[in-house]
Amino acid sequence: MKKLSILIAVAIISVSMCACNTSSDTSQASTQNSESSSDVNSNSGDVNTINLNETVTVEEYGDFTVKKFEFTDTVKAYGASAGGYAENREGLTYLDMIVEYTNNSSKEICFHNNLHSEITYSGNYIYTGNAYVESKDGTEFDDYDSTISNGETRLLHFAFNVPDCVESGSENISASINFGEELSGSDGSKSYTGSSYQLTLRDGSKDKISVLSGSANKLDSGEIKIGDIINVNDTIEFELKEGGWAEEIKPHNPGTSYGYLNDKDDKIYAYCYLNIKNGSATELDDEIEGEIIYDNKRYLSSEKAETPDGSDFDNFDIIPLQSGNLYIVTELPDDAKNSEPLDFKITILGNEYTYTLE
Q: Is the pTM of the predicted complex or chain greater than 0.85?
């Protein structure tokens, strides 16, 4: 999404709500597979199946073992005396996948450039993890661009922010671990210059889970008004809660400290305020856009999510099986408010909807 600059730094909290119907089997860690080792030197593009606690040798990189995974409110190094490196957000939790890695190559390895991971929940919903490497003494995490020297063994943490229902449910959770440089295809697909591995963290069903209400109006495009609830391609649902003009955009329930958007002299904001439920496989990013044509000029919108309690703005996108409130905001010349009614065009997954600003 195109990000708006704000006058106060925003908190890193996401707007979330998971509404999936699952059983309450909460497994905090899994070490069910006996320890083993293998020498897997695959070619780029191949995907190798591995198990928990299986030590794998990767040509040009070294040995790695996925030791376990656990759900947690904070992600921190095992030797940390207090505090956490990252805290979860309301309605979400962390899945922390712990990997032991030994650099047996002849070079230093920059972990963040050479090792990538994703998890897939219930066979459909994809979450990308943040990678952290523990310091040599295990008391903290190293800097983002730190390297692991030849012969060193470190614990790595892949932290995935997921809805609470991923922890409480019993559906399948699988993980991919990919070595080398990440490459993006023209269709948005990903590939890697090194080896790729797949493992099951939790066995279970791979059924599709719905967070949509079922009562929304299925509309591919067209005019919308305040209160309309729209189903987009059976994967996303949104409600247009508000729309209008404002000199300032701020959260609905401002806290003692919060970010806000303040227009410049001779400028004004046109905005739409949506509640969005994401039932798609990936996070919503560039899939939501807005624009207004005024005085024969095209004005593009920016998007900003609220925190769950509406007290601040949020820098995170809406992940699969999550709901959130989102502003779509366009800055226009001040006299636009007094012109003829303007069409605010909102594009979601390529579908165009129009709200008329009076």
A: no
